[in-house]
Write a structure and sequence with these properties.
The chain is an alpha+beta fold and 226 residues long. The protein is built from five helices and twelve strands. It folds into two domains: 145 residues, no CATH class; 75 residues, no CATH class. Helices cover 38% and strands 26% of the residues. The strands form two sheets. Strands 1, 2, 3, 4, 5, 6, 7, 8, 11 and 12 form a ten-stranded mixed sheet that branches. A two-stranded antiparallel ribbon has the order 9-10. The longest helix has 28 residues. The N terminus is likely disordered.
Amino acid sequence: MKVSLKPLFLPQPPLLIILTILSSSNMIKNLTIITLKQPQITDFAKARNLLMTKAKTDWLLFIDTDEILTPALKKDINQVLKNKNYNYQLKRQDWFLNKKLNFGETSTVRLTRLIQKGTGQWQGRVHEVFQSNLPVKTLKHPLIHQRHLTINQFIDKLNHYSSLRAAEVKNFSLFQLLFYPPAKFIQNYLFRLGFLDGLPGLAMAFMMSLHSLMVRVKLYELQKAS
């Protein structure tokens, strides 16, 4: 399989790239894989929608730089590309601190990523989702989400994402500030059995709670400054 790497447009420096698979008969056909490469994107939905309009194939697959497309998932994709009645969501197998997370919030993630051009739009500046005009089915095998991040790097990402999310939220709520972050931790660590993932499960539950807290504190800052 050959991979062609081509910038769609060239700001300085290049911000977004597109990877187009040029496939043989036993590989994925008629599919463009799109990956965002800018570390400080301020509107993820806008960036994805822009790249979607530039693609030349009927089918598009959006994957991130820390996600891995396995041979089993490639086979799943090959089997469904002839059916244009659906878009498809992918299960995601999450890894954190060199451990697969079987529990907690990330274990239930389903992402609509295999889509047909012109069948919907991405929405949301951060944690964006694809609003599909077609019914959505789920593929059998997961996308591997392998984070190669130190805790410092992960906190840096949370800082960036929470700033984008705070800009989306309209009204500050003291109730949410006080109760959402601890509720998020309890939900992920206890009710969703994150404690069964050991220290990585504890760290992930804490990080998700921290993100919730940061969003609301930053929203308070924004409203006080306006």
